[in-house]
Amino acid sequence: MNNAISNNPNYDMPDDSFFNFYFLIHKNRIFTTKIALKVGEITTALLNMKAEDMKKIYDLTVSFAGFADNNMAMKNEQTMTEFVDRIIEIEQIAVTLPPYCYVNIDLEKEKQRAEIMKSKAFYGRLYDMTSEEFAEYERYKKLFSGYGIGLYIIACCIAEMSDEYFTRLKKRDESNYAIAWGAFNEYSTLSSELMASVPYYEKARVRETMDVNIGVSGMIDPDDKDKTWVVDTCEFHNAQSVIQYDFFRGMQYGRAPFRCHHCGRFFLATDSYKTFYCNEKSPENPNRTCRQIGAKNKHKEKAENNPIIQTYHKARNKYYQQKFRGSISDADYDKILHYLETMRDKAIRGKSDENGNLITYKTLEQLFEKDTLYKTLNIGGEQ
Fold first, then answer.
1. Lesser CB count within 10 Å: N end or C end of the chain?
2. Rounded to an integer, what distance in angstroms lies between the CA atom of residue 210 and that of residue 241?
3. Is this structure's pTM higher than 0.70?
4. What Pfam families has UniProt attached to this entry (predicted)?
């Protein structure tokens, strides 16, 4: 063990890898070999991934799963070389994304470990299902056949849980989050829709049980060297389990991701306040935060009761999901968002359309329909 945890050189953890990586958990704080975090921050980072990054890792995983299922009957130099090269390509991207970006994975060491599978001494043993080589091969196949797919599925589920269930809560705390989570499980059809539309859905291993070994240890308080904590020592074996653990642990401490009503990015809210705006710089005005702009416009944004605002949020969330899934480009999404905001503001101010008719939320529902909006903005998109 040679990895000192962040802010605490007195505690060492084992080396991290894609198959085994380690967190220390104390209440609402997470310590890795690289960084100190608050619970919920990893989940929020996942939700804020660039759409093109999510699409790339998703596509690579789907392609790998298809190759591993359909081309590996004969395990020879050619098939094993492609098998390993595909894994290394995924690894190079994975270390830049949550949760792997928060731990110390030696990418060169991981590459060397994977490339052992290219040797005849290794793949020649794969027809013996009791061999160590076969177990190693299966472990790689299982992990990388579900990695990007699992991230996509869990991100979609948490985003809907936040947008459709958490946002309605009058109070943000553990009890109400639990109720909202139960409602999502009972009423949401998203899981069924994803199961029907996502290739190799069954390989993602996203479920309520997590692949993690938990023990206990002592740790010096990084803020007070005279105090010692009893901490959970968590050994995770895949990315999906980390996200689930971080998300549900966050709910226990009243911390959950919410989408900013101004910029559309997710931010981590706590039970100490209820806000609909993040504290990041506004995309269109870097000198002000979304929260500052939201406060200024609060008198015209009664999101909980105003059907105009509700129609706007519903449309924005829909098109954000299309961007998230790679159906539309970031540039097209920005164009759509500007149009949605413009029409929302006109409706709020009681303006009329070009025919002299008052713009109501019913008008907006028609204007925000996909075919109508794409035609208005001259966007190709999916029809």
1. C
2. 5
3. yes
4. DUF6076
> Is residue 96 a part of any domain in this protein?
yes
Total residues found in the chain within this entry: 383
Are 119 and 189 in the same domain?
A: yes
Q: Are 89 and 60 in contact (CB under 8 A)?
A: yes
Picking from 201, 231, 259, the residue at the C-terminal end of a domain is 259
Domain that holds residue 120: 1-259
| Structural domains of the chain, count | 2
Q: What is the pLDDT along the chain (383 residues), one digit of tens a residue?
A: 344 455 455 556 789 999 999 999 999 999 998 999 999 999 999 999 999 999 999 999 999 999 999 988 888 999 999 999 999 999 999 999 999 999 999 999 999 999 999 999 999 999 999 999 999 999 999 999 999 999 999 999 999 999 999 988 888 899 999 999 999 999 999 999 999 999 999 998 777 678 899 999 999 998 898 999 999 999 999 999 999 999 999 999 999 999 998 899 999 988 666 788 898 998 888 888 998 888 666 655 555 578 888 899 899 999 989 888 888 998 999 999 999 999 988 888 888 877 778 888 899 999 999 999 999 998 874 44
Rounded distance, CA 13 to CA 364, Å? 55
